[in-house]
Amino acid sequence: MATLLPPPKRQKVYNGIPEPEKIPVEQSPNVVVQFVSEDDGSALAPAVSLPANVSREDLQSLVNRLTSKADEPVPFQFHVALPAEAVTKESSRIVISKSIEADVLSHSSRAFSPEDILVVHCSPQSVFRVRPATRCSSSLSGHSSPILCASFSPTGNLLATGSGDTNARLWDLFTETPSHTLSGHKGWVLCVEWEALERKLATGGHDSHVRIWDPKTGKPLGDALRGHSKWITSLSWEPIHINPSAPRLASSSKDGTVKVWAITTRRLEYTLGGHTASVNVVRWGGGGLNGKGVLYTASSDRTVRIWDANGGKPLHTLKDHAHWVTTLSLNTDFVLRTGPFDHAGKLPSSDEEAQSRALERYNALVSSASELMITGSDDHTLFLWSLFPSRSDSTQPSEVAASNGGKLKPLARLTGHQRQVSHVAFSPDGRWAASAAWDNSVRLWEGRTGKFVATLRGHIGAVYRLTWSADSRLLVSASKDTTLKVWDLKTYKIKTDLPGHTDEVYCVDFVADKIVSGGRDRMVKIWKN
pLDDT at residue 211 above 60? Predict the structure, then answer.
């Protein structure tokens, strides 16, 4: 009897379709990569040859190993600068978010090939990460007129808002409920400013008065500070690392003056009267020639003036703008505003400890770059300035001015906006600066050189305000189009769109993982993950 062969195997079918032909895996090319520091352009290690499909996370591990930081790894962001002929109006660099092969070699500009030596810029990121807000957790009513200003306290426990109903309000962020109503102004409350140790809150009104409040009780600390003849445009407290026990307060006004108040004695120390039109912004910087602080003022007389904070002596007058100077930002704004409080949440036990911790945070920021300033104007441009060199630089501004024929020159002129600049803000780490304008766009710049990075488009109305997350990875913009937008700095695209307001959004602020916004619809909205 012949042996029966087993029946032939049935061909495996995929839902009735024959098995597709296997696509051969393409071999990834090797590329030569030179890692350089974003800060000074120095090489972090010799050039290395890598497969182009190495992921961003593996690149991060490699850089930490090459720089001997494997024990305490630092997160990095990587980017490759586009050659001059490939730079577009939208971007001047390629951020590596997946791999060199996926992001750089496959880029639409076709500016790079596997034969090139790729210079990859490495920018260290903060070790903590802020979660992007995705939903509205609270809509708080209470104000009966549009909300004009909003500011988180330095610890992030309280929120202050000012409105056209002549009241400021305090809100508890743990319970997301109203805390106190601050009544006293006889006109719109135009600005609110927290002292960096959260002991006092200052408000400025359309009634030309400055008022000081105790945030714990919601009661005024004495009567109003009177002296200005027109409404208050901006407030700024003396930094904690200079004066922890009794910081002074500077107020700028439409009347063209800046007044510095001693809050403990409730007396006017001095008045700065050099401007010939409305002073739109005042900032109290922590630097200066002797480290005792300086006042920066921006005015509608087209000038920016710098003053010694001890006595009010004028130091510099910057006349480069061709129209009203409406916004001003320092790269130290975030550390001056939050004083001794960082992401760890540890509270100082005394004024001396608060001073030392605030000074430590300030010095850590200005050690690599001095205290920088960006000014924005209705002439559609911005200027980046370095007026007081870092302590490692022996060149004094007066010597620099002398070499320039007696005139201080800006580090860079930032052009590109098509309409008036409404707001400019440095990131907390000082590496980025963002500017908003009436041309519906947000532009991103390198914070230390002023080089253009990218244009963020998505709003369909003028962009009024910007704010950064504490880790400098997220940027939030508030617009006339009733939305907030959270921008991802890896892709320069919208990460989250936050609609919900029914009218223009005038103010926005970011603390921890919470965003607050307010506007013409009279609602305070809190957004979180």
Answer: yes
